[in-house]
Amino acid sequence: MFLVGGLFLAFMGLVLVFFFLRYFKLWFQAYMSVADVTLVSLIRMHFTRVNPNVVVQAKVMSAQAGLSIDRNDGISTRRLEAHFLAGGNVMNVIHAIIAAHRADIPLDFDQASAIDLAGRDVLDAVQTSVYPKVIDCPDPARSGKTTLSAITKNGIELRVRARVTVRTNIGQLIGGATEDTVIARVGEAIISSIGSADTHFHVLENPDMITKKVLSRGLDAQTAFEIVSIDIGDIDVGENIGARLQSDQAEADTRVARATAESRRAEAIADEQQMKAKVTDNRSRLVLAEAEVPRAMAEAFTAGRISAPN
Predict the structure, then answer these.
(1) In Å, how far from its chain's centre is CA 3?
(2) Which of 59, 112, 117, 174 would disulfide-bridge 35, Cβ 3.0–4.6 Å?
(3) What is the C-alpha to C-alpha distance for residues 46 and 41, in angstroms, rounded to an integer?
(4) With bands split at pLDDT 50, 70 and 90, how would you rate the model's confidence at 35?
(5) Are 212 and 221 in contact (CB under 8 A)?
(6) Are 156 and 242 in contact (CB under 8 A)?
(7) Which residues pair with 149 in a beta bridge?
(8) Residue 223 carries which DSSP code?
(9) How far is the C-alpha of 145 from the C-alpha of 157, rounded, in Å?
(10) Distance CA 112, CA 100 (A)
């Protein structure tokens, strides 16, 4: 009995020595960085198939960056392990939180890990929030078009290319609309603004009238971005759509008038033929009536109603 107990204790001692030698360097690194990673936690990571190097490095970076590593509400070892096991990118989340902390952007671990697990690049979102990026409207890579086509009230087509500067709205990154929605909304607002202009000269003289109207509409609502500015990159005068439409309408009206005149001519010819038929019918009836006169006179002579003069 004592032999079995001794062997078990020896085995457990060897196991502890093995784990101590294997994870001592990581534990010592965490200890010297005041990262609060225990040797028991490292052994647990071994059995739960969590990469201890990633967790320790994340805790060390968090501690050195001045982030809270409190076991209850901070970036604790347990929370890092849970995010790793959920398939998240632990280092990307930590880098994003540190960047947000340096830029004074509110971003906690729960929010960052949720964004990461949702499939979005949380670090890129923070970088875009710090350094706004420019989106072409329209974007040739998405729509294949290089300009927006809009028509003023006087019928002149204007081809516009705009550049939209946006930064990430961290609070609406989960569930918020993407860049495609922002581009579509801005394009629609630009076309509507140009369409409300009386002449194309007003737009060419004051292109900022477009951006002011567009910005006043709050197009970034319910999106993952905040619109910083909208700049008109280029405006070209296109075709006189109004004149072309009037020409097409006049040609269509001419065709309708010709068709109406042809219909009336056909009706007149039909009426003429009908009147001719009636005249012929009346003439035939007259001939028949004239033929009855001699017969009536003969019958009168025969009956003695009419006598010949002496």
Answers:
(1) 75
(2) 59
(3) 9
(4) confident
(5) no
(6) yes
(7) 159
(8) B
(9) 16
(10) 10
